[in-house]
Every structure is written in C-alpha cells, then in structure tokens.
Amino acid sequence: MEQFLIYLRKSRKDRDMELETGAFDTLQRHRDTLLTLASKQGYTVSDIFEEVVSGDTIAERPEMQKLLSAVESGQYAGVLVMEVPRLARGNTRDQGTVAETFKYSNTKIITPDKIYDPSDEADEEYFEFGLFMSRREYMTINRRLQRGRMASLNEGKYIAGTPPYGYRKKKLDHQKGYTLEIDPEQARVVQEIFRLYTDGEARPDGTLVPVGSYAIANQLNAQAVASPGGVQWSASSVREVLKNPTYAGFIRWAYRPQTKQMVDGVLQTTFPVSKQCKLQKGLHEPIIPEHTWRRAMSAMGGRSHAPVPGNRKIANPLAGLIYCSVCGRSLVQLPQGRHGAPMLMCPTPKCTTKGSRRDAVERALMEGLKTWLQNYQLKIAQQEETGEDHAELERALASAEMSLNKLNTQKGNLFDLLEQGIYTQETFLERSRLLAARISEAEKAAQNLHKHLAALNSVKQARRQLIPRIKGVLEIYDSLTNAADKNALLKSALDHAVYSKTVGGQWTKSNLQLFVYPKLAPAENGL
Predict the structure, then answer these.
(1) Tens digits of per-residue pLDDT, 277-310?
(2) Domain 3-154 maps to which CATH number in 1.20.1050.40, 3.40.50.720, 3.40.50.1390, 2.70.40.10?
(3) Cα 142 to the chain's mean position, in Å?
(4) In the 8-state DSSP scheme, what is residue 347?
(5) Coil, strand, or helix at residue 352?
(6) What digits encode the pLDDT tens for the residues 127-178?
(7) Less Cβ around it within 10 Å: N or C end of the chain?
(8) Residue 283 and residue 74: Cα distance in Å, rounded?
(9) Dihedral angle, C-alpha 61, 62, 68, 72, nearest 10 °
(10) pTM (2 decimals)?
(11) Topology of domain 167-302, per CATH?
C-alpha cells in the first residue's frame, strides 16, 4: 500500500495574520485541510512534519531536513503540502536540493489545487518555476523588512533582540517599536566600571590611579556581581561594556554583521566587528555621559591588552594551574628573596590569601594528587564490583524502547482507524496530538539513556588513561629539573588546583590547603 507524508509550515504572512486576528491557528487549519484531502483520495498518511521554527534555509528547518531524508528513501508515493512555496524559498542551492530530491525519488507533490508529478516534464518545469517565484517574493519581503528596521533605527528606536547589560527592552507607548529603560541595579555596575576605568581608585596619598579591565573583572567577581552572561566577569566582558555606545545614549546596528564565505566547498558564517558601524542617537536615557564613554574609548586605545608573548620561558612549573580560593585568580611566582625560595602569591591587591614558598605548594600538590588517586581507585573498584549503574541503564533503555515501539504501533493503528472512518477528523486530531506528545517524551527518554550509556563508556575509557598519567606525575615529577617540562607534565593530568591559606608567616603555623581537580572526562563530571 502506498504511503504519504504531510508537511506543514507557517509563512511570514500567516504569522502576521495570527497576531492581528488571534482567531485561529494556521497549522491546525492546514492540517485539517490536508487530512481531509487524504481521506477523500484514500491516501495512507504515515507521518506529519510540522515546522515550528522560523528559518529561511533548509539548514535552519529541522523538520524539512527530516522530510527530505524520508523522501530520499523512496518509500513514499507523495507529500501533501498546502502550496509549493512552503517547501523551499531559500537560495538556488536549497531549491535545487528540494527539486532533485523529489525528482530522483519519484515522489509526487500534492496540493489542494494540483498534483505535481516529477516524471512529467511540464509538472517539473511548473514546480521549479513556483520555487523561483517564491524566492523572489521572499527577497522582496526581506528588503521591505530591512527598510523598516533602518527607518526605526533612524528614529532612535531599539531594533536588536537582547538588550545590553544595564537595560530592559520596553514597548513604546502608542506607536510601533521598542526602546530601552534602565535597570537600576545593573546600571550602577556599569557606572562603576566606567568610573574605575576612566577615573580610577584613590591611593593613600589621594592620587587617582586608573584600574585596568583585568582588575575590574576581579573586583566584580570578588563582590559576587553576575556578568551579562550570568557567569564570572572576564577582562573581555568588561571591555565589551566599555566599548558599547548604548550606555552613552546611542544606538548601533550591524556592529557584528553576518558574513558568509565558501571555504573548501563548505559555507562558513562569521560575525566580524564592522569598522563602518554607524551610531544613531537613541530614544533611551543614557547611563553615563557621552564624554565619559569617549574618555574610556580614548584610554582603551592607549593601553595594552595584548597577551603575554609566547616566546617567554616558563620559570614557574605551577603556572596556570594554581588558583586563589578567594578571588579566583591564578597565583603568580615572585623571585627568590629572603624566604630562600621562589614564592607563590595572589596578584589581586588587598586579597586576604597569604603566599607560600613554591616548594611547599609543590609538596602539597603531590600529596593531594596521591590522596585523590587512592580515593578514586577505591571508588572505581566499588562501582565495578557492583556494576549496577550500567546494568540499570541497559534495563531502563530496553524498557523505553519497548514503550516507544508500542506507541508507534498505536500511531499506525490511529491512521488506519481514520482511513476506515471509525474516527472522526476531530477525534483523530485530538488523539494524534496526545500520542505525538507521548512519543516525543519516549524518544527523549530513550535518547537520554543512550547518551548516559555513552557517557559511562567514555568515563571508563578516560579512567584507563587518567590513572596512569597521574601515577606518572607522582613517579617522575621530582626527577625533572626544567620548569617547562614539569608544567607540561602536570597539565597532562591536572586541570587545576584551588589554593587556600589565611594564616602563615615565620612565627605562625600555616593553614595551607590545596584542592586538586584532575582532568576527568567531561561526561564523568555530570554523573
């Protein structure tokens, strides 16, 4: 028996009409129409692909990708769709992909008005012409939208999606478009960043010393201030705030325009900073004066943000591995002085963490790795003895796949009942939606279990590699004399270590603590 597929996708015009009227669901109407058509013609519908995301290319439309994959198999006699432009309105390559997929699989395209047979030259030509016209229509709509955006930009409206840190997006009263309103709590952080960078902090003698982006990030992290991304601040995120003219009352567009190019036959998309980005005075209230922003930009041009040259020799075998427990910065090495050995210190001014001799930290690190390895091997031995995790996951996966098979069987019976007239269209749609939701949940459960099993296998493989590496560190570290060789050896097995010390000195007992974090498999961290 021949089988058919249904493909549903909203056009931009459909979405606009839904927003204006709010009276109907376009996909629901189209689904009803195509199911009625299938019922009248006696088609057996095997699957329905509903595109719920907006995308102009096949790469941005996952359901279209699934449809083309199904059509390629040659198992289906035809695809029901409301009109040809619903299949592809992207570039010439996308149109050619769609046309050739249907042609070489000999799959018909069925609309309420016409059936397109790819083996018929006239139908093939008419189909390709329909794709061409839909592309022209798309380009016309896109140009109109871009003109509307530029008009809004010239009026000072905010046309980007996500508002910058320090602002909230606000709908304009009695007119189309958006502007920005200040978020008081975040705005104070923005003002503090500009103050520290342009004016600086006061020394004991009263003079002001400008603070760099690295130091500003450390201060914000020490104060537990969340960054725009909700994580810790970095020097680059501080500089992004300083460079943003929105805080001075301007609107910018195309600051990082999308650039596409072919590299070795593969389309690559990049977002480089545009030097031709124009500024427009915005309707929103500025957080800082314009002259403060320009001072920050001028200061940034005169300061160095270059990384440390890569040709410098490593003098500290623990470089980039030991981090302060208070402020999170990497400890730095000071030259040998009165302590008789190089010292490791936190570089953050006024940080409460005390320094230590490097050799003391190295001994603590070796002891920490030794203790961690003993506990880790004991944990592995216990898990391998029981073997419960792997066995339970395999049982759960078998159960999930059995449930999924039953649901798919019910799905097939559902279409049969519709074809036989036992179910009305309304009953079919209601039960089809419920069944689709259950199938989706079952598929997700099975996928998650597959991923978890793969993660366990990845962990086992990583363990077989990690344990010998740590043993090697413990065995040969002290025999090495070159700091760079020691550093490379440590980084082969150690991700980082957290250093804590609040008491120390010549006449007091040190409370140095070191928490080691070896390089576990990424999957193991989530188990």
Answers:
(1) 677 888 889 999 998 988 888 887 655 454 444 4
(2) 3.40.50.1390
(3) 26
(4) -
(5) coil
(6) 666 666 666 666 665 677 667 667 777 788 887 778 889 999 888 888 888 8
(7) N
(8) 57
(9) 150
(10) 0.39
(11) Hect, E3 ligase catalytic domain fold (3.90.1750)
